[in-house]
Write a structure and sequence with these properties.
- The chain has a 4-stranded antiparallel sheet with strand order 2-3-1-4.
- The protein folds into 2 domains: 41 residues, Arc Repressor Mutant, subunit A; 80 residues, Lrp/AsnC effector binding domain/regulation of amino acid metabolism (RAM) domain (Alpha-Beta Plaits).
- By secondary structure, the chain is an alpha+beta fold.
């Protein structure tokens, strides 16, 4: 479903990205509208798929997940069966926060969040026992400098 997004829709989306737990009254006040039109626009944006699921962002380190690895994967396998097995292996592992198929020398990059290096090794051993990969390089993030899910809707 295609939806036309105007300036008020963008303001509403900015507010929801900032804090989706805000009341409808607060969002309406912040965007200069009233509650009913804002609610109708949010409903329209949900139905069109512009707004996906709502969730809570947890602090990984305070929950003991102190290690973030970026895993670069090269493979010589490109058949549908291998890709299906690889995708299933990734989807079955909650440690994988993101997975991207890339253009260039690296085929895939994963963002993997674990408690420590030992937990990463267990993840790695499990992954390579399920799917064959040509080369795996793990890069430990020393410091998260910026992380956001916000899209640049303003300006």
């Amino acid at each position: 479903m295609s939806v036309r997004i105007d300036a008020l829709d963008r303001k509403i989306l900015v507010e929801l990205q900032r804090d989706a737990s805000q009341s409808l009254d607060v969002i309406a006040g912040n965007v200069g509208s009233s509650k009913t039109p804002v609610w109708n626009r949010i409903r329209k944006l949900r139905e069109a798929g512009v707004i996906g699921k709502q969730t809570v962002i947890l602090d990984a380190e305070s929950l003991g997940f102190e290690a973030c690895f970026f895993v670069l994967i090269r493979t010589s396998e490109h058949e549908a069966d291998w890709q299906g097995a690889f995708l299933k292996a990734l989807q079955d592992r909650p440690e994988v926060q993101e997975a991207h198929r890339l253009a260039g020398d690296i085929d895939y990059i994963l963002k993997v969040r674990v408690k420590n290096a030992r937990a990463y090794d267990a993840f790695y051993q499990a992954l390579i026992s399920e799917v064959r990969v040509h080369n795996v390089t793990a890069l430990l993030s020393m410091e998260e400098i910026k992380s956001t899910t916000d899209l640049p809707l303003e300006g």
